[in-house]
Amino acid sequence: MTTDSTGNGVAGRRPSWPAQFDVPASPSGAVVAVDIDDAGLWAGRVVRGEVVRDELEPRIRPAVLDVRTATYLRETGAVTVDSGEAFAELVRVVGGARVELARRETVLTMGEEHLRLVAVSLADLIEATVPEANRAHGMVIEMAGRDPVDAVLLGPGHDAWPGLWEALTERSFSVLLQGDPFPAVFGGDEGPTEMFAEVAPPQPVRAWGDVGDPAAFGLDRFGNALADPASEVAGGDAVPAGGLSGDDEDVDVRPGVRGRVLAVAALVMLAVGGGGVALAMNVKETSSPGVVASTAPTTGETSRTPQRGPEPEHVNGSVDPAALRDARVPVSKYTSPTPTSTKTKATRSAEPPLGPQPKRPPRHTRRTIPNPIPGLPPIVIG
Q1: Higher per-residue confidence, 352 vs 287
Q2: d(CA 237, CA 232)
């Protein structure tokens, strides 16, 4: 084996096991093979089942993984090591547990002389070998070059590093074992993709695009009811035949909502304030609208009749006159009842109750005889 300028081994290996994977003939990205043995961590670029370029990292071997894991257990306090001999024994115990971790999650093993029971888990080995996993990630990127990594193929020696599959998967690689299908989301999918297909332009959003003109339904473009010209001019000034003049064109001939809102506000003020205010809003829906308001003083007594103004002319679509008359009715003032005096209460309590009186039960008298024993109470006999 020779080495390059970085000290990495250029083994020039040409293993045959990458050809046993189901790899497409022309993948869109790079396919990298990774394996580990006592010589070190090996990675190679695979093209059509053959390794065209490879690299070896001799500093990452199974024995190095044992030392890393033993150091991790000692630093975390999972195992107490007080001497060099005890640490060397821990390295040997971890080496035996590493082989078993390829088939299970946790291994509980026995020490030889300085250690007793030692528990080693797969999570401990993964945490302890983070630097080696980062180097493996870098080797995969170096083998791929500028191409994206479609898949990473693990060789038959990957069992010597439990957690290698998890470490590379955590770093966003699609790691395959022998017999796993090639991921269809990468270069092996030769079907057309619709990710960049042309998207149809959005349809225009129109409120009345499908039903026609809203005026045909008696509505304006906002969905409000349009004014009826015949009902508008029936109780008010007639609209000139020639139309509205320049000054009257600004008048809104539609039945406004403002008059109704003001009338409702007046009723709310009467209900909340409790005074004698009567506000009548009567809006004429003609070319010359007007507002008639009538107020009564709020400081007067409730028995006084409020001043009434002229009855407003009722126009279709305005406030009902009956509701206005009810609003002008003065609000009755609540008078609390006068408290009764204590003398009256006493007089009433002294009066005999009406009706026959119930018979009182006869009083029972006790019969006693003197007690012959001096100092004791008499004896009750009945």
Answers
A1: 352
A2: 9
The partner residues of 275 in beta bridges, in order of sequence, read none
Is pLDDT larger for residue 265 or for residue 170? Answer: 170
Q: What is the DSSP letter of 51?
A: E
Give the closest residue to 60 by CA, choosing from 170, 146, 163: 163
Q: Are 81 and 90 in contact (CB under 8 A)?
A: yes
| Tokens standing for residue 336 | 């609390």
Give the start-to-end residue ranges of the domains of the chain.
Answer: 1-188, 253-330
3-state DSSP assignment of residue 193: coil
Task: Compute the distance between CA of residue 280 and CA of residue 269 in angstroms, rounded to an integer.
Answer: 12
At residue 261, φ and ψ (nearest 5 deg) are -65, -40
Domain at 1-188: CATH architecture: 2-Layer Sandwich (3.30)
Question: Dihedral through CA 8, CA 12, CA 18, CA 24, nearest 10?
Answer: 90
The DSSP 8-state label assigned to residue 228 in this structure reads: -
Tens of pLDDT along 249-308? 444 444 455 556 566 666 666 655 544 444 444 444 444 444 444 444 444 444 455 555
Residue with tokens 């030692």: 118
58-62, 106-110, 295-299, 342-346, range with greatest mean pLDDT = 58-62
CB atoms within 10 A of CB 266: 20
Secondary element (H or E) of residue 35: strand 30-37
CB atoms < 10 A from the CB of 259, how many?
20
